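step: validate -> pass
step: tokenize input -> pass
step: predict -> running
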Amino acid sequence: MENAGDATGVNMGKTYKVELHERLGLSEQATPSIPPELQKANELIQKLVTHATNMVLDLATCECEKINECEIAKQAREIAKVLKEFQKLRVEGLGSGESRREA
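step: predict -> pass
step: emit ->
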């Protein structure tokens, strides 16, 4: 993907929202507003994913001799599996506007 952007959601001057609208062929007016409750839920999910990703990265670089016996490490591996699934869904969802329009 060209111009992958950064953690702030800015992609060479475009937000992911604008980029998504362009990929899906939508105008700004075609997108319904998000209720405050869903906006808050989205913010919490983003925060959770960020912290979980940081924890998994810390685990991946941990050099503890007993890491395979550690319950926290086991849970972090499970979180990593879920994050991997989530990332796959995100990539598939943004990769092709066709599948979203058909749904």
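step: describe -> The CA atoms of residues 34 and 40 lie 10 Å apart.
step: cleanup -> pass
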